[in-house]
């Protein structure tokens, strides 16, 4: 409802601005004796309106006050020195110039409200999304929801639960080598490598796409996690020997950290990730 109202106000303001410009053109064409002066003032009025569009209404109105003062001083000079009378031309521009500024500011304000609303909706949609659109992997939001469930199952039924955090070594340097259009594909290939190394009842998450970091929730203990780690590293070696180096012109390395869930030391899913990431420091 608010978005529709903002759109309506924006449309009315734009239409009003066009109507005012049309009135200015008609007025100028009806006063050929002051044609040059009116054209100059119209350009000044348009410039003030554009300045308001890119800045604020305060700046626009201050500039309008400067214009009104300067134009009033010029009119007074002509009246006193040349004996001319104050005609319709003067009153027209003293009213029309600030009016153009205000109408364009209303259009700008409504337009910015629409942009802000659109950004809020995009952010809300991104926050609600639980699957990465490029890799079809569950993301960190999904991890937090699932980890709460899995840790509850682990505690209740005494089933060991281990989190593996997998990170690409030197990713910031690698992403400068791999073309931008292939980065998503490279992340997808590494995701497939990790997915192929776990069982169907384990879960894989893309925790940080920008830093190429994955999380694997495994219903196993630390010894079982070591087997999965070795399996991932073996598959990585096979990938480097066959496809990855040829495809992306770079050899890939992984750092893997693992932490088994302990209800007394891990307070929440984010703490689970933090403790697992600390183990990355020992994998050199």
UniProtKB/TrEMBL annotation:
Keyword Thylakoid: no
Gene3D superfamilies, alphabetized: 3.30.70.270
Transmembrane domains' residue ranges: 12-29, 35-54, 92-110
Record carries keyword Membrane: yes
Keyword set, alphabetical order: Membrane, Transmembrane, Transmembrane helix
One matching Pfam family: GGDEF
Domain of life: Bacteria
Cross-referenced InterPro entries: GGDEF_dom, Nucleotide_cyclase, Rev_trsase/Diguanyl_cyclase
GGDEF domain: residues covered: 129-280
Signal peptide annotation: none
This protein's name: GGDEF domain-containing protein
